[in-house]
Design a protein that fits this description.
The complex is a heterodimer of chains A (141) and B (672).
Chain A (H helix, E strand, L loop, with lengths): L6 E6 L3 H10 L8 E6 L7 H9 L4 E6 L10 H19 L6 E5 L5 H18 L2 H4 L7
Parallel strand pairs in A: 1-2, 1-3, 3-4
Helix pairs in contact in A: 1-4
Chain B lengths: L9 H6 L2 E6 L11 H9 L4 E7 L5 H14 L3 E6 L2 H14 L7 E5 L1 H5 L5 H20 L7 E4 L3 E5 L3 H12 L3 E5 L14 E2 L4 E2 H14 L3 E4 L2 E9 L2 E8 L14 H5 L5 E2 L8 E2 L2 E2 L11 E2 L5 H4 L5 H5 L12 E7 L1 E4 L3 E3 L16 E3 H8 L20 E8 L15 H15 L4 E6 L9 H10 L4 E4 L2 E6 L5 E7 L4 E7 L1 E6 L1 E3 L3 H8 L26 E3 L9 H19 L3 E4 L4 E3 L9 H5 L5 E7 L5 E8 L9 H5 L5 E3 L4 H9 L3
Parallel strand pairs in B: 1-2, 1-3, 3-4, 6-7, 6-18, 7-10, 18-29, 20-27, 21-22, 21-27, 22-23
Antiparallel strand pairs in B: 5-30, 8-9, 11-12, 12-17, 13-14, 15-16, 19-28, 24-25, 25-26, 31-34, 32-33
Classes of the chains: A alpha/beta (141), B alpha/beta (672).
């Protein structure tokens, strides 16, 4: 059986969730490997959520929200971006390959971009293989 | 490190009685997702006491199914697996509320937009639907009943900007029973419309239609004018804003002043260029901007008055019989309470000095549209006669150049300023009415005359009044030694270069946001687009609202607009404000952050992160009033529920209702 990656996505309610809705309404298709967890804003994403997702068996995490300047809450996505630039150092420390955490801006109008993004992430993770076998950090965090 | 046990509060989880309702959406979901199988799978989940699937959950029988289940099975939570919550969350939550279940105990699993519509393989789609349902069941098990936040509404609207949009909004709100505070930066209300000579497309006199409105606004018992004032600071939120207004020093006590005019008739400083007359006329250091000003009380221009700059003169105080002049007057700050805000900050004309080919603003006889309005106005510096600013002679050839700065994203603005085609046609018409042997040449890119009576108006300028319309851009305007302006352009319809010797050139400058508009937007938390115009909440469906609740837009601060459009939007903004005032209390979504004050270590991370200033210091005091500790606190009225504070909190003391750490971690754990 081929390896099917599990991808957990944390998306904001206003842009990417709506963008993913648009992908559906436009009847575009993408790989069924993604599970979306909706949050009000990317600013809400605690780095711990990402670690928890890996702990729970995700092979990759996708974080997506409004484009810079378009945040529904004015600046939440900037906080998320700043947090991410620090968090990647922590990832290296925990032994999680930072290429397993994806960060992208998808607006409510970018249904096609969302589909492409999910397909790209799924392909990359499929090529990289399961998180546990390649990574020593599979042990409980 | 913080810990999130996998099953938090097992006791509550055991007691949970959750119903799962899976919608086929006709064939939309059912074709790809095996709904009965998903229902059977969901029935096995811990806490689920009922799991049903139905053709159309959103239909009346579908909703009744949910209602019945809530009542009969005493559900403590419900998951509806159907379309996107953006589509029907409100529908199902109000159905739940009707049956007595707190609406925030119902969640939707999006198995249509995020599953059946984007995947084609039935097994994979069904597996994904199972996951999405399981995740939501785990969340709902941890949902708390939430209650809308009630905020009292102060039935006063703050209208910022006293142009036609602001005046109209103020009058409409006052007519609807609200109270209004109208803040205007300049000494008089009236705005740009007061400066116009006639208005298109009917050529009625601008002041004749505007000044009665100005007087009405000033004399209305429920409208309070604050002229020569600016918004300094904004606190609070929809329903109860507290706005600090700077009342600039007028140096004239408006209570004592009768507006007799002795002061400005005697003021020896006669040569200050009048802003109202676009610099073509002059005013004194103590002045009213124009004779019909409201309020008709002068102010002293502190930058030019010699009494204020050098302590010499004092003539106006000597001649004022009422003793209204006070050279020691100071700016005052005044707080105003308001439930709603209408921003009508208006526009100004783009500075055409960036166009070196049109003289770069240095040629006296190259003027902008407002200057031409003042020349054509009966109350203007020339008494309504068209005169060249340089030598006062009557121009025999006037060239009007359209799209000056508009539709030029290299040097100017990328957008169309919308009103210039119309006012240029009006200018050409007025000129031909006043100078019968004169020649009016209009260089245009396209004539955009969309509006009631607009196309007819432009045709009238061309056919009845003989304006010469030339399609093409002007490449250069320069002054010849004899004083003539040489306009070099091209007539692109015949494909020939063209030169016109003109006496006066009028540029139709682009409309740009008023200076200081961006600062005002920041004070109220309103966004601006790349050109600096205020952003509406939705370009089509919410054109007068902004992202800031309770702040509405009117007039050209949102986009270039003519008078009818500005007035229409002002009335719409007034209707929105009155809609807010219709209820004594406002209900808001209860998704807000809360601080556990026992845990808070006051690191201030949340206070620094909050984009709304909702997180603030809170002093814990003992009964004697002694300060014990300072912690953070979230103001429920200001909080919009983004949750940034919850993510930055170092002591795990801030959490977000509806998206708590516990809920999100349970969702993540359920994905295993």
């Amino acid at each position: 059986m081929t390896f099917e990656p599990r991808i957990t996505a944390f998306v904001c309610n206003w842009c990417t969730y709506a963008g993913a809705d648009l992908t559906g309404t436009s009847r575009l298709s993408y790989a069924p490997n993604i599970r979306i967890v909706k949050l009000p804003c990317t600013g809400r994403i605690d780095p711990l959520f990402v670690l928890k997702a890996f702990e729970g068996g995700a092979d990759a995490v996708l974080i997506s929200g409004c484009h810079p300047g378009d945040c529904h809450y004015a600046s939440g996505n900037y906080h998320a971006r700043r947090r991410w630039s620090l968090f990647r150092k922590l990832l290296a420390f925990t032994g999680i390959d930072e290429n397993r955490v994806f960060f992208s801006w998808v607006s409510a109008a970018e249904g096609q971009k969302f589909a492409n993004l999910v397909n790209k992430v799924t392909e990359q993770v499929r090529a990289a293989g399961p998180f546990g076998e390649r990574n020593l950090a599979r042990r409980r965090l | 490190m913080r810990r999130f046990p996998k099953y938090v509060n097992a006791g509550r989880a055991l007691m949970a009685r959750i119903g799962v309702f899976i919608c086929h959406c006709g064939e939309n979901i059912g074709r790809t997702v095996d709904c009965p199988a998903a229902a059977a799978e969901a029935a096995k989940l811990p806490g689920v006491v009922l799991s049903l699937d139905y053709k159309y959950m959103c239909s009346d029988p579908g909703q009744q199914m949910i209602n019945k289940a809530i009542a009969e099975k005493l559900l403590t939570g419900a998951v509806v697996a159907a379309c996107s919550p953006r589509m029907h969350e409100r529908t199902f939550r109000s159905a739940a509320a009707q049956a007595g279940l707190n609406p925030y105990l119902l969640e939707m699993a999006n198995v249509r937009e995020h599953c059946s519509w984007v995947h084609s393989e039935r097994a994979a789609a069904t597996a994904k639907a199972n996951d999405l349902i399981r995740v939501m069941v785990e969340k709902v098990r941890r949902n708390k009943a939430l209650f809308p936040i009630r905020v009292p509404v102060e039935p006063t609207a703050l209208v910022v900007g006293g142009g036609i949009a602001g005046i109209q909004a103020a009058l409409d709100i006052a007519a609807g029973g609200g109270k209004v505070v109208l803040v205007e930066r300049s000494p008089s209300i009236g705005g740009h419309m007061a400066r116009l000579s006639e208005t298109f497309p009917t050529l009625d006199c601008s002041q004749c239609i505007l000044t009665p409105r100005m007087v009405e606004a000033a004399s209305h018992p429920d409208i309070r004018l604050m002229t020569y004032s600016e918004v300094e600071a904004v606190e609070g939120f929809v329903g109860s804003f507290e706005v600090t207004v700077r009342r600039k020093a007028r140096y004239v006590d408006p209570e004592k002043c009768t507006g007799c005019g002795d002061c400005f008739n005697k003021c020896p400083l006669k040569k200050i260029p009048s802003e109202f007359d676009a610099g073509l006329g002059s005013r004194r250091a103590i002045y009213v901007p124009f004779p019909q000003a409201v309020p008709n009380k002068p102010v002293i221009d502190a930058a030019n008055c010699t009494m204020l700059t050098k302590g010499k003169c004092g003539l106006c105080a000597k001649v004022c019989a009422r003793g209204a002049i006070d050279y020691k007057d100071q700016d005052r700050l005044e707080k105003v309470k308001a439930g709603a805000v209408v921003l009508a900050a208006g526009f100004e004309l783009w500075d055409h000095s960036a166009y070196g080919e049109y003289g770069g603003g240095r040629l006296k006889d190259v003027i902008d549209g407002f200057a031409f309005e003042r020349l054509a106005s009966a109350s203007g510096p020339t008494g309504g006669e068209i005169r060249r600013p340089s030598d006062g002679s009557e121009p025999k050839t006037v060239v009007f150049i359209q799209c000056c700065g508009s539709r030029d994203d290299k040097k100017g603005k990328g957008y169309c300023s919308k009103i210039c085609c119309m006012y240029t046609a009006k200018h050409a018409m007025l000129y031909r009415h006043k100078v019968h042997d004169g020649r009016a040449v209009v260089f245009y890119m396209d004539v955009r005359a969309a509006g009631k009576g607009y196309e007819e108006f432009v045709r009238r300028a061309i056919e009845a009044d003989g304006a010469e319309y030339v399609r093409g851009r002007v490449s250069r305007v320069y002054r010849r030694r004899d004083g003539k302006l040489v306009v070099k352009g091209a007539d692109t319809l015949v494909g020939r270069p063209m030169t016109v010797e003109a006496d006066l050139v009028v540029l139709a400058d682009a409309m740009v946001p008023r200076r200081g508009a961006e600062k005002l937007a920041q004070l109220f938390g309103v966004g601006c687009d790349t050109d600096g115009f205020y952003s509406e909440a939705h370009p089509k469906l919410r054109p007068v609202e902004t992202a800031a609740a309770g702040v509405f837009l009117a007039g050209a601060c949102q986009a270039p607009k003519d008078i009818p459009d500005s007035v229409a939007q002002a009335s719409a903004a007034a209707a929105k404000a009155l809609g807010l005032f219709a209820k004594p209390e406002l209900e808001r979504e209860p998704v807000i952050a809360r601080v556990n004050k026992n845990l808070c270590v006051h690191c201030r991370a949340c206070i620094n992160a909050c984009p709304y200033g909702a997180a603030k210091d809170f002093e814990i005091k003992d009964r004697a009033g002694k300060l014990l500790r300072v912690v953070a606190e979230v103001n429920e009225g200001l909080c919009q529920g983004c949750g940034t504070c919850a993510a930055v909190c170092r002591s795990n003391s801030v959490d977000l209702d509806g998206f708590s750490d516990e809920q999100v971690c349970a969702q993540i754990a359920a994905l295993e």
